[in-house]
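Internal QA ticket QA-208
Title: Verify multi-chain structure generation after dependency bump
Assignee: T.L.

Test input:
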Amino acid sequence: MDRTLIEKVTSMVLEELKVEQHSASVKPPASMRMVKIYNNLNTKPTFGEVTDTTRSDEEAIEEPTFYSTVASPKNKEKLLENQEKTPARIGIGRAGVRPKTNALLKFRLDHAAAVDAVYGKVTEDLLSRMKWFSVQTSTETQEEYIRRPDLGRKLNEDSKKLIESQCEKNPQVQIVISDGLSSEAIEQNAEDVYLSLSQSLNQLGFQTGTPFFVKNGRVAVMDEIGELLQPDVIILLIGERPGLISAESLSAYICYQPRKGTIEADRMVVSNIHRGGIPPAEAGAYLGNVIKKVLTFKASGVSLLQKEK
Amino acid sequence: MSRANRKETIISAGIDIGTSTTKMIISEFTLVNTAGVSHVPRIEIIDKVILYRSPIFQTPLLDGGTHLNMPAIHEIVHGEYEKAGIASSAIRTGAVIITGESATKENAAEMIHDLASEAGEFLVATAGPDLEGIIAAKGSGAYDYSIATGQCVANIDIGGGTANLAVYKAGKLCGTCTLHVGGRLIQFQDNVVTHVSKPVMQWARTRGINNVDMAHVDALLEEMVRTLVLALQGSQELQHHPFLLGHVPDWSDEVEVIMFSGGVSECLYYSDRCDGHYNDIGVKLAQKLKESPALARWQRVTPTETVRATVLGAGTQTTEISGATIQVSPDVLPLKNLPVHRFHFPNGQIDEQIVRKEMEQAGALYDPLAEGNLFALFLSGLGVLRFKDIQQLAVWLVDSLHHTVHDALPIVIVVANDLAKVLGQCIQAIVPHRPVICIDQISIDNGDYLDIGSMLQSEVVPVVVKTLAFHK
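Actual output:
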């Protein structure tokens, strides 16, 4: 990647923002969507050296909107209607053979948000508010987590002991939360999904275990948790790999009696849980019914489909 | 996810009891989950096939035309079910609509409620001039044409008693208007006038005519075309015109294309199918419309359905499917003819003042004596809410309902956004033993009554939004 270009674009964005903020000369209201500027792209990609991923600047500024469209559309209504139907970048116009400035800036911004989501951390504030204790997989750093999916599927020894000492054994449903590839997904959605899911499970009469948070987890980490706690069902709320449409999308993986050697076909997933997809609170309410089905048929994933027939 | 690609079909009926003719259609809808495997299901109607079209029957009347002949209409409907080879119990949705002057008959309301409850498991009754126009525009193809072209299309459905205009632009309803313009407003036998409808008499009196005879027909037709042109122009001049039924045109867009449907349009587009056996001015009206230079300014497009536009619309376009994540107590469905009260949250957030104020109004409107009349709450304008906000909203709703609706009655809530299941569960958590119906992704823009059908296999409910206004 061309670093000078990125720096140039970033400084342009910041300049533009300063001008905008200055002219408005009012502080944006706290309820506005904020974007945080981190320094993730300037990490040194030298192997063997611990990479510095700490946030250099945590000050939040208002997220700029970059709107770009075809200059003179033949049928404006139709174009707007189509644009409303998809978050994809359609009808954004062009300047010669290149994207328009706004389209490029939007792309850069979304890309930066995706990078932030991968390198970000779930805040202590959320964990303590939700009373989720935190454990760690066998990965030491974020870089290692990204390069070694196998380690993200294993808990470290301290974590195993912690889980065994803290958690109720043999629950019907064990809820686990993990940052996965997007800490933002957890920050934005996990609370609402969790509360709504808990209410739903409670109404359906299912008994739930002690929830906890796994740092740097991969989906299959649920197998080891299954061995430790022997639950009937595990539901893992995990951050999805960020894309350019949304960097905060959450997935819920559900598996009936996950244990060592569980095959991927027996896991099922409800994805796209975020403000722009399925609303988190509604997703939680729906997931209760999915778990009910899993418990009724004593199967999940492909096995469930076969039993349902 | 387990419902992926599993298809379900339901049978829908449409019955149109018009001023001069009665007809019905039976169609089959295919429902399927169109969401990806890993997504929350989204059930949509992906296909509609017409299984049966009835012939056109003359609407049976009694007592010199003041009443609809109920037994005769029942006979027609059941006879047609038999011909189509469909049991009335197989009808899962659809609408009976009573249109034009039939809606003014003394037993109109009784007739359609009776027919709706008896002729199909979830066949709903509907009426009202605005809805007639909307349903006809959907049946005639005008609505689809406006989507395909992005143009502003006016559908003019002219039957025996009324002309119902509905204007659509790019699939969006711009407005409606209804005129006393129709083929059956004057009837005759051997060139002698035998019946003149009230609005025509009113108009005649303004011209100093006391006895309308055949010599006045031409002037009358000219006047009908003139009012139609005024209406298409969106003119407010019509305000006190005897031919205006209800409100003046309420659209602000310029109409670009016109399409005619209804019985009279049959003579307009297909003169060979038109033999004038109705002994009324329908044929002459069609001729006038065809030749009118004033109407020639608009581009004219041939509809896909003429005389059957309304019945097709009633049979295939009235049913909506709820969102797939909903919370319903199955025992209380179907529910019919629920008046709807709208709770609008203008800034996207929950607001206790709005809940309490609207609930009070709803109670005063629909259940003033606290007799336990059911009504539905429609919540619109809400954004993506946090769980705690939804919980709070549930508390306010239940608490304020407590003062208006009897405790044993079901709570019926429709939400525009996707949050019915969580809201329903939050309400259920407060009142565990009370039936709760909470559905979403239904828009209640054109109508004030609601019918909710039984839950289908796909775990959605069919919903019909409608009006029940009978012409005065």
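Spot checks passed. The domain at 124-308 of chain A is CATH 3.40.50.11240 (Rossmann fold).
Status: verified.
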